[in-house]
Amino acid sequence: MIVTGGTGALGAAVVGSLLEAGASCHVPYRSESEAQNFPQRAHPRTQLVSAGSLADEAAVAKLFDAVPSLWASIHLVGGYAWGPVAETDKATLMQQIETNLVTCFLCCRAAVRAIARAKAGGRIVNVASRPALEWRSGAGSAAYTASKAAVAALTTALAEEVAKDGILVNAVAPSIMDTPANRKAMPKADFAAWPKVDEVAQTILFLASPDNRVTRGAVTPVYGRT
């Protein structure tokens, strides 16, 4: 398995769930502090990989070429930018597109190629967002919403493209998740209603597993009670 964004809050939950299920995980990182703080860094079936930017074609190719046999690729890397359209410059828009869409596209492309080499089928799971499905909820963060909506569209189109090869492509669309960073940013929110990262991880685990035999092209809401 490859798990991009695996050193984040959701990523650590996903990697933990995969390890419990018996998988081996390749987890790219950009900074040494990410690697040092990663809770599963010492696990014998975890391989941390210094990969640089996943918006760089060469870096993505190197990451995927280093995995001899790939069953599933889970793409969690991304970022959020708030701001009304009138106050959002081109640089912010392009940054959101690169961070959310370009990284996902390049990793999907590399994953399709790597899974095809093994000739045994496989799974790809992306991460969209609630605004990617409910556009009006993205008011105030239109650049982010547009980039995540593109991830949802990419997921559905790619799923149709590679189904014949036994590759099932899906995505999850979380609402605001219960993470330390989100609690700090929104201290007055109802944390109990937010989906927990462990819960979202279980949905991702199923979509990436052999137990998922028929689901493809889905952008699955994981909203909790929000």
Walk me through this protein's architecture:
This protein is an alpha/beta fold. The protein is built from 8 helices and 7 strands, in the order βαβαβαβαβααβααβ. It has helices at 9-20, 32-37, 57-65, 90-118, 130-133, 142-162, 180-185, 197-207; strands at 2-4, 25-29, 46-50, 72-75, 122-127, 167-174, 219-222. The protein has a 5-stranded parallel sheet with strand order 1-4-5-6-7, with helices on both faces. α2 links the parallel β2 and β3. α1 packs across α8 (197-207) and α3 (57-65) runs parallel beside α4 (90-118). It is globular and about 45 Å long.
Percent strand equals 15-25%
Helix content: 40-55%
Broad structural category? alpha/beta
Strand line-up of the largest beta sheet: 1-4-5-6-7
- Low-pLDDT parts are none
| Cα shape | globular
CATH superfamily: NAD(P)-binding Rossmann-like Domain
The CATH C-level class name? Alpha Beta
CATH architecture assignment: 3-Layer(aba) Sandwich
Count of individual helical segments: 8
Task: Describe the structure in brief.
The chain has a single domain, classed as NAD(P)-binding Rossmann-like Domain (Rossmann fold, 3-Layer(aba) Sandwich). The protein is built from eight helices and seven strands. The mean pLDDT is 96.
Draw up the topology in text:
Blueprint (H helix, E strand, L loop, with lengths): L1 E3 L4 H12 L4 E5 L2 H6 L8 E5 L6 H9 L6 E4 L14 H29 L3 E6 L2 H4 L8 H21 L4 E8 L5 H6 L11 H11 L11 E4 L4
Parallel strand pairs: 1-4, 2-3, 4-5, 5-6, 6-7
What would the keywords be for this entry?
8 helices, 43% helix, five-stranded parallel β-sheet, alpha/beta, globular, Rossmann fold, 226 residues, 7 strands, two-stranded parallel sheet
